[in-house]
Amino acid sequence: MSKQCEIVQDLLPLYVDGACSEASAEMIKEHLANCPHCKETYQQMNSNASEAVLKKEKDGVIERHEKAEKKKIRRRIILFSVLSVILCFVIIFICISLKPATIDYGNSEVYSKEDMDCAIELIKTIFSSWDECKLYSISYTDDGLCQRELEYCNTLADEGVVYTECMVFRTRFRTSIFAGYSWNANFEYNWSWYFARTENGAWELLTRGVP
User: Fold this and answer.
1) Residue among 52, 35, 43 nearest 12 (CA)
2) Among residues 29, 68, 69, 126, which is most buried (max CB within 10 A)?
């Protein structure tokens, strides 16, 4: 190998990368035209450089593809999580909506279950017409309260009517998020229901509302 070949081959990496001066590039170009050995070395280096570029581009494509796939997977996971939460809420809502109201007859020594059922069925009937409300519970209060509220019931009686018995129930219910008119949307209410009857008469609903 001549001295000039050594110089050219030392400069070939810069020549392949296009980083040598114009004068050096011109000298190397002329040498390669007349030196098969250096030309072969140059072609090999140039081929290796091309492969390196292709490999780099290929690696870049693979990396971008992997990032895109990971992004898709993250989106699917997030979407699945959101749908799972929504589904849980829907299932809970359906279960709550279908669950019947609990009935608490209390411990009355005055009124029988049959007496109370008359009032309870009327409460249920009224609630069945309130589509925007979900009834959770109906509870009898206690005999002492009912006795004390008898006087109040008679203040609501028509002229000439005298009530001899009184039953007071508590209800717990919630309005839907779409409730309108006089309701507060998605709000839980606790109402009292006053029933009274005359001697040997039927139970009547006199009033209802907050305690």
Assistant:
1) 43
2) 126
